[in-house]
Design a protein that fits this description.
Rossmann fold; seven-stranded parallel β-sheet; binds ligand FO1
Amino acid sequence: MPEANSSDNRRGGVLALAGGVGGAKLAVGLARVLPPDALTVVVNTGDDEIFYGLHVSPDIDTVTYSLAGLANPETGWGFAGDTFNALGTLKNLGADTWFGLGDHDLALHLRRTDMLRSGKTLSDVTLDLSRRMGVRHPVVPMSDQPVRTIIESDDGEMSFQEYFVHRRSEPEVIGLRFDGADSASPSPVFKSALESPNAIVFCPSNPFLSVDPIMALPGVREMIAVSDIPRVAVSPIIGGRAVKGPAARIFQTFAQKPPSALAVAEHYEGIATHFVMDNKDESSRVAVEALGYEVLVTETLMTTDAHKIALAIEVCGMAGVPI
Ligand code: FO1
């Protein structure tokens, strides 16, 4: 496997693909060890939805708030210490308020929606707002066109937020599709980052729900699969369990097996070249290596900034990316 070369100035640094909370944690670590021109974080927008008339981009916000040091440490999403006065008023005024937008969060969504309505792209708006929050590394939506993750369930079709937040992942998932992906294109910064990265990192986000929407954009899977650089997948499954979210049932449905680091490695087969899994999953090392991966077994649970940085250093080391 060719190693990234620090003197290869034509290369564009690390391209990290992320969903929400798990992806945001590794993005924080990577941003602490890499300069802004050596990291691009491309974020899933399949979970985006209109709430209260406002454009909500949950994964972009989770990544941005996390990089800005503003994320709610208990939930991983939303603003730390946010209040919910406006939501209470909305409820009193008859709105269905199952999707919890705090007061600070609402201000961000008002601003984003206003900027989008004035004709700016989601890329422009994300860059502008993230800079204003003090984020120095580029946070980039996967696409500027709408792509929506639709859950096909035993109780009908629904948006991801309807399934995950409103219905608490209770409906039985029987299918998944990414509406709009075929006719969308990767956002301009994503497209140029794809052309010559030093390494690609699949952050520990749900492979089916958070990374697959990114891979579903025309040309993305193919470009990644044929690239000759290290492509590191970090398992979001630790000891057979998802750190957060509905991964267990989703794995059962789509991989036809319970969640495991090995199932994640199988999912990224032919796409990733390197695989990072937790010490708790050490027993699967040989099976993952047999799939052709270079494997790193380490501590992957990121409960502190020190963990995030340590994992980022290991990921960069494995990919030969100088820090
Ligand atoms: N998740 C919840 O479980 N309940 C909520 O009310 C909720 C509100 C919310 C508001 C803004 C935001 O950026 C994220 C929010 N999330 C909420 C998280 C979000 O639904 C998921 O974590 C992601 O879409 C999955 O990656």
